[in-house]
Description:
Blueprint: H1 11-21, H2 28-34, H3 38-95, H4 100-165, H5 171-187, H6 198-202, H7 205-213, H8 220-231
Helix pairs in contact: 1-3, 3-4, 4-5
Amino acid sequence: MINYDKDNIPDALIKKVVPLMSEEAMQDARIKGASQALIPVKVWIAAMIKYHSVLKIVNPMRAIAAEMGAKLAVVMSELAIKQKTVREINEELDDLNRNGARLEAEAKKLVEDIEECHKKLYRAEKMIGGLEGEKNRWTDTVASLTKQQEMLTGDCLVAAGMVCYAGPFTAVYREQLETLWRDSIKKHGIKITQGVTMKKVLGNDVTIRGWAVAGLPSDNLSIENGIIMFGSRRWPLMIDPQT
């Protein structure tokens, strides 16, 4: 999994795997029943699918940026040729007064062509600038997802441990428990996000705001209780903040 070539996943493989992810056999409950260790594998597969979909957006944009760069080079080359032609025509005007009218018409046409080239160049620069910003944003997104992928196993361990065991305990003891697990996970050589908590991994801002509207207190203990309630496979055991 660590050395998997995630940048060259065949589309055919993705098409085969995506339908399988929605089958009943791939539900967390069924997977945990077979092996607790397979849950992170499912999460890794889902991350690979998402990473692949992001690359399908980023790579075409890179190709478009390269194409626009090539077009810009052609326009610049044509512009240079036109400018050279204008200089030559201006020199001929001094010697060919009889053909002045014709040469002036040609000069006017060339000036119009130059102006059109300037307009095309301006539009091309704006397009390339926009694509460059989009490229940077997706590059940052891919880098962020890659970093999250490295920390996924350790972060999930902390979150899963809190859902399973932290319900009956007070807020202070829960913080101590998370600190203990983070230190232990690091000692075993598993990568983990600095200061990760169950709330950061499983909490959803929109859902938490909905709980607050429904009357749930905004303290961490109450929010954690809500996450445990909705994240447990069975009936969770916990102590209410008002005892």
